């Protein structure tokens, strides 16, 4: 029982990391900050890739929680927060 919940926690933590990285890269894109990585559209592409990775990790975590019937309110809250941010970003870029 401990192994699946540990895996879910790791997936949620990784998703949070990718959300932070995506937000940072998107800020570089918005501010046209080069930071030695090339043109600003590179930052936009990286941010989109990170948002997709965050979504995939959240999907994996939710799948494991459902399969193993894991009920953890703090993990569920963290997942909802990330999903809300992802949905807000999709609306901002008219992807919905």
Give a summary of the structure in a few sentences.
The chain has 96 residues and is mainly alpha-helical. It contains three helices and no strands.
Walk me through the structure:
This protein starts with a helix and ends with a helix. The mean pLDDT is about 85. Helix 1 (about 1-30) runs antiparallel to helix 2, helix 1 runs parallel beside helix 3 (about 75-90) and helix 2 (about 40-65) runs antiparallel to helix 3 (about 75-90). The chain is built from 3 helices and no strands. The chain has one domain. The longest helix is centred in the first third of the chain and has 30 residues, at about 1-30. The protein has about 100 residues and is mostly helical.
What labels would you give this structure?
single chain; 96 residues; mainly alpha; elongated
